[in-house]
């Protein structure tokens, strides 16, 4: 009898084990089971963002198998499916769009195998993110992104700093404000840190000395103030540094010159007043240098040996109060495609021939200065540049007229024609515009005017080009 009881007991235990396993996992068509608790946490999380009417169990009975959800990726751990990537928001046409009124459900933080979490254009109504729960994702989460969520307001949660496995943190164009949490200094594994387009204020934390692997730092389009932290110069791997459109002041830290791998430095529209000649010239790897809109120390700025920065492709020095001649070293930058010198107080002549020899130059802006003399660019140069060349608002700058049959020829608008002296030197000086606008035979035309007008015969025959009317207005 005891033998029979033993067999019956083993049979009941076997049946119980099968029941427990079937209630906690479900086998998908490709053979991998998924914990029901994991799947229900996923369904509940998504339902909080897209609305209660969404029924994941009917629409996507196998979210990691044969009925995948757009924005959801999974991986197998210990022979079970787990959610590893979750993107909420209308990224693709078939992505799940967020509802007008949404909720961050606690089930989100039970998906503790998540490596990547993104919210794209989801939060429209005002919402402050809770400080709790983020710690539960700390051991695995490598990428966290908040993109284009104007409804996300308040300070960035302090507990974000507990996500010490993060390699990418993107907080782009949201409504976050206040000071950055000091806990961000804990994220020393980051390769990308983007906090652009928010309302952050205060000083930038001085704790970048531990960020040895950081490649991209973008703090642009906020309201950061004060001086730049000296530890910025210790991010030895940094490729791109964008601090533009803030309220930063003082000088560039000396350590910036040690960023030997930096390709982009953008500090436009701040209040930075110096430290460039000591730093910028040392960064030979730079391809994009944008300094416009800063009140520069003129001697500091004009002392840079531009010829040593042969990798520059984009150089913007506009709106900086620069004085003196156009630096001759700029004419040695053979890779330069964009040169912005506009809205300064530059004087002297334009090195037209030298600038024209730059093989890659495709945009040149020198308008809004006090440049003098004659523009000596060829028609071929103007055809190449089109509207990407501007030289207007230089009262003492002029352009020799050219005749071109090419439809691509766009002469510089707002630059007056140069005056022409008669070949015999009889003290008659004629302005091409004045001569061309007065008809032959008018009562105000002198005999000398009529003689000088013969120099304009090509223009008279074809008629006055329309751009002269525009230029004179």
Account of the protein in words:
The strands form 5 sheets. The chain has a 19-stranded mixed sheet that branches. The longest helix is centred in the first third of the chain and has 23 residues, at 2-24. 18% of the residues lie in helices and 24% in strands. It has 10 helices and 28 strands. The protein is an alpha/beta fold and 473 residues long. A hairpin with a 5-residue loop joins strand 1 (25-27) and strand 2 (33-35). Among the domains are: 24-114, no CATH class; 418-473, no CATH class.
Task: Spell out the key features of this protein.
473 residues; alpha/beta; three-stranded parallel beta sheet; 28 strands; 18% helix; disordered C terminus
Helical residues, percent: 10-25%
> Tally the helices: what do you get?
10
Low-confidence stretches: 10-23, 25-30, 422-473
What's the number of extended β-strand segments?
28
Oligomer: single chain
- Provide the β-strand percentage band: 15-25%
Biggest sheet character = 19 strands, mixed
Structural class: alpha/beta
**3D shape:** elongated
Radius of gyration: 33 Å
Cα(first) to Cα(last) distance is 115 Å
The overall pLDDT, averaged over residues, is: 83
GO biological process, one term: response to fungus
Protein name: Piriformospora indica-insensitive protein 2
Keywords: Cell membrane, Leucine-rich repeat, Membrane, Repeat, Signal
Pfam family, one: LRR_8
């Amino acid at each position: 009898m005891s033998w029979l009881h033993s067999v019956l007991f083993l049979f009941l235990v076997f049946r119980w084990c099968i029941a427990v396993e079937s209630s906690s996992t479900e086998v998908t068509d490709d053979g991998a089971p998924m914990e029901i608790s994991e799947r229900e946490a996923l369904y509940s999380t998504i339902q909080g963002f897209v609305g209660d009417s969404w029924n994941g169990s009917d629409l996507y009975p196998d979210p990691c198998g044969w009925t995948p959800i757009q924005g959801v990726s999974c991986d197998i751990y210990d022979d079970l499916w787990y959610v590893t990537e979750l993107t909420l928001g209308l990224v693709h046409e078939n992505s799940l769009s967020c509802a007008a009124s949404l909720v961050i459900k606690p089930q989100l933080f039970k998906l503790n195998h998540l490596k990547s979490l993104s919210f794209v254009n989801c939060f429209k109504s005002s919402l402050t993110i809770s400080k709790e729960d983020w710690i539960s994702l700390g051991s695995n989460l490598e990428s966290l992104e908040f993109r284009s969520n104007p409804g996300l307001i308040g300070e960035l949660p302090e507990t974000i700093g507990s996500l010490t496995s993060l390699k990418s943190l993107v907080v782009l164009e949201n409504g976050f404000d206040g000071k950055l949490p000091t806990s961000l200094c804990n994220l020393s594994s980051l390769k990308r840190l983007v906090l652009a387009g928010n309302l952050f204020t205060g000083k930038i934390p001085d704790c970048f000395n531990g960020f040895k692997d950081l490649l991209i730092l973008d703090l642009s389009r906020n309201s950061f103030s004060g001086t730049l932290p000296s530890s910025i110069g210790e991010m030895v791997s940094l490729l791109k540094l964008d601090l533009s459109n803030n309220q930063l002041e003082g000088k560039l830290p000396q350590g910036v010159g040690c960023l030997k791998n930096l390709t982009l430095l953008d500090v436009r529209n701040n209040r930075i007043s110096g430290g460039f000649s000591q730093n910028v010239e040392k960064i030979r790897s730079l391809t994009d240098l944008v300094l416009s809109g800063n009140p520069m120390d003129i001697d500091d700025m004009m002392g840079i040996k531009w010829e040593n920065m042969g990798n520059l492709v984009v150089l913007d020095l506009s709106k900086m109060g620069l004085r003196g001649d156009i630096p001759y070293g700029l004419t040695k930058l053979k890779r330069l495609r964009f040169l912005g010198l506009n809205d300064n107080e530059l004087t002297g002549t334009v090195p037209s021939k030298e600038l024209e020899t730059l093989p890659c130059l495709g945009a040149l802006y020198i308008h809004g200065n006090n440049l003098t003399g004659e523009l000596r660019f060829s028609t071929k140069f103007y055809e190449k540049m089109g509207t990407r060349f501007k030289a207007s608002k230089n009262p003492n700058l002029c352009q020799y007229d050219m005749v071109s049959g090419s439809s691509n020829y766009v002469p510089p608008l707002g630059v007056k024609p140069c005056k022409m002296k008669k070949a015999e030197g009889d003290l008659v000086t004629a302005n091409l515009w004045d001569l061309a606008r007065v008809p032959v035979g008018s009562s105000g035309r002198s005999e000398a005017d009529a003689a000088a007008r013969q120099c304009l015969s090509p223009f008279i025959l074809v008629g006055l080009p329309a751009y002269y009317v525009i230029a004179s207005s």
